[in-house]
């Protein structure tokens, strides 16, 4: 059986009853939906399904699942538009999204990540891989929601992360970060000035490796820069260390740790 947790942030009404995490699987190919559903249920998850974007949007607003597995090419509302809607909806914005794409063009994958997806799987795929990606994303969300790490609150210059509340601000203004972007920024703020290799940042921030990790990480970094940098083309906060990876500028200010009340 899969991991069981308290009814979660995205699909709960509160309370302490233990319940399976809920996954919404959306694809206009009913055989794919049937196959992914069977493997996820075997892993212990509760699975909701939809076959087009419009029905998926309705289910998302009513059911608030813990994670979305989403096909890109769908009738009514496609995966790109649905992802944009989700990231604009405060009650859904932090929900992890894994995109399914039949296209091999990296441009489509990068675009999906730039719009706010956390991961992608290319068709045809092994359903066990989808289960592994789902498990990794949900594990990461549990760590974010139940952080007991070194810092409850991180600050580096005007950047501030409240890990326990999963809130990020820049100069006091809220940042609209995806779960993956939040975790990458948190990892870098824990060690400002340290030059992370791409492999280190993937492992520490995302918790696992997958194909195309360089392009995937670069897309998330590009998104972060767009959201936090005064000039994303000449970044002040997240610096590229050529031949190595990325680091958070430690000359902006020293990090501070705080305790939540």
Structure characterization notes:
The strands form 4 sheets. Strands 4-3-5-6-7 form a 5-stranded parallel beta sheet, with helices on both faces. A 5-stranded antiparallel beta sheet has the order 11-10-9-8-15, with helices on one face. It starts with a strand and ends with a strand. The protein is built from 8 helices and 15 strands. Mean pLDDT is 80; it is low at 1-17, 147-151 and 254-261. The chain has 2 domains: 22-146, Response regulator (Rossmann fold, 3-Layer(aba) Sandwich); 153-248, Winged helix-like DNA-binding domain superfamily/Winged helix DNA-binding domain (Arc Repressor Mutant, subunit A), CATH 1.10.10. With 261 residues, the protein is an alpha/beta fold. It is globular, with a radius of gyration of 18 Å. A hairpin with a 3-residue loop joins strand 13 and strand 14 (245-248). Helix 1 crosses helix 5 (127-145) and helix 4 runs parallel beside helix 8 (213-228). Helices cover 38% and strands 22% of the residues. The modification 4-aspartylphosphate is found at residue 71. Residues 22-138 form the Response regulatory domain. Pfam families: Response_reg (PF00072), Trans_reg_C (PF00486).
CATH superfamily of the largest domain: Response regulator
Secondary structure tally: strands: 15
Count of alpha and pi helical runs: 8
Fraction of helical residues: 25-40%
How do the strands of the widest beta sheet line up side by side? 4-3-5-6-7
Question: What is the terminal separation in angstroms?
Answer: 37 Å
CATH architecture of the largest domain: 3-Layer(aba) Sandwich
- What would the average pLDDT be, to the nearest integer? 80
């Amino acid at each position: 059986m899969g991991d069981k947790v308290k009814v979660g942030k995205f699909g709960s009404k509160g309370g302490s009853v233990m319940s399976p995490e809920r996954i919404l699987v959306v694809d206009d190919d009913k055989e794919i939906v049937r196959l992914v559903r069977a493997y996820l249920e075997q892993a212990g998850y509760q699975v909701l399904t939809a076959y087009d974007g419009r029905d998926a949007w309705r289910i998302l607003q009513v059911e608030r699942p813990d994670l979305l597995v989403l096909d890109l090419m769908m009738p009514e509302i496609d995966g790109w538009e649905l992802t944009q809607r989700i990231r604009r909806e405060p009650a859904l914005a932090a929900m992890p999204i894994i995109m399914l794409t039949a296209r091999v063009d990296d441009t489509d994958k990068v675009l999906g990540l730039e719009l706010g997806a956390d991961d992608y799987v290319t068709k045809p795929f092994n359903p066990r891989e989808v289960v592994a990606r789902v498990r990794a994303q949900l594990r990461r969300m549990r760590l974010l929601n139940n952080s007991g790490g070194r810092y409850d609150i991180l600050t580096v210059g005007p950047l501030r992360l409240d890990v326990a509340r999963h809130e990020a601000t820049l100069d006091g203004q809220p940042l609209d970060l995806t779960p993956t972007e939040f975790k990458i920024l948190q990892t870098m703020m824990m060690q400002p000035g340290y030059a992370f290799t791409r492999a280190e940042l993937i492992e520490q921030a995302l918790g696992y490796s997958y194909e195309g990790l360089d392009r995937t990480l670069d897309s998330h970094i590009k998104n972060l820069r767009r959201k936090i940098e005064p000039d994303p083309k000449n970044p002040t906060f997240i610096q590229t260390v050529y031949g190595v990876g990325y680091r958070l500028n430690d000359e902006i200010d020293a990090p501070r740790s705080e305790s939540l009340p």
